Amino acid sequence: MSKLTIATLALLAISLNAEAADNGVYLGASLSRSTIDTDSDFFGFRYEDDDTAYKFIGGIRPLDALAIEVNYIDFGNIVFDNRDTVADGFRSEFETKAIDATAVVFVGGPVVELFGKIGAVYWDADTLLQGGLSGIDLRDSDSGTDITWGAGAQAQLGSMALRLEYESFEISEADNVELWSLGFTYTFL
């Protein structure tokens, strides 16, 4: 093997290592699409729809393969508007926000990594029912702590990472709460 080939391989190995996981504290944000399908009726209404959502990401990655992450998530509003029907005339709204804490395991690299995550989510859901012939105005609020898990991929570009991920939230008030996100993180410490 020639000295030029060895030098080229050594430089390639050094450059790939420079693009490896950037460990430390990171912050980020994602634009998301949430899907919420409730399993419990609120005065006869069932919510099943999707909406634009967003989340803020904070984490620490002490090892190449492991991070601890905390997210604030706004799932958006699911609205059921039946005001055009003379018999019903109801407007109903379901809104959920959450904070989760997860352990994130990374595989792959140096530029593209796959990851899986599992943890706990604290959620808060508000429901509103208005209208009808009697002019009803009912509100309900509930909160709890449940399990969350997810998976995704990210492209690491120095201290910046672009990520695509799917998350599922086992919220006890719903059959199905999912989030597809496209976002970024930046490691600064």
Structural summary, described in words:
This protein is mainly beta. It is about 10% helix and about 70% strand. The protein contains one helix and eight strands. Strands 1-2-3-4-5-6-7-8 form an eight-stranded antiparallel β-barrel. It is elongated. The protein starts with a helix and ends with a strand.
Q: Provide mean pLDDT, rounded.
A: 81
Order of helices and strands: HEEEEEEEE
The residue fraction in helices comes out at under 10%
Content of β-strand: over 45%
Oligomer state of the chains in this structure:
single chain
Please report the total strand number as a whole number. Answer: 8
What structural class is derived from the secondary structure elements?
A: mainly beta
| Termini Cα gap | 40 Å
**Low-confidence segments:** 9-19, 83-87
| Order of the strands making up the biggest sheet | 1-2-3-4-5-6-7-8
User: Main sheet?
Assistant: 8 strands, antiparallel, barrel
Q: What is the count of DSSP helices, taking H or I runs of 4+ residues?
A: 1
Rg, alpha carbons: 22 Å
Shape: elongated
Features:
189 residues; mainly beta; eight-stranded antiparallel barrel; 8% helix
Write the layout of secondary structure elements.
Layout: H1 3-18, E1 24-38, E2 48-63, E3 66-82, E4 90-108, E5 112-131, E6 136-157, E7 160-169, E8 174-187
Antiparallel strand pairs: 1-2, 1-8, 2-3, 3-4, 4-5, 5-6, 6-7, 7-8
Summarize the structure.
The chain is mostly beta strands and about 190 residues long.
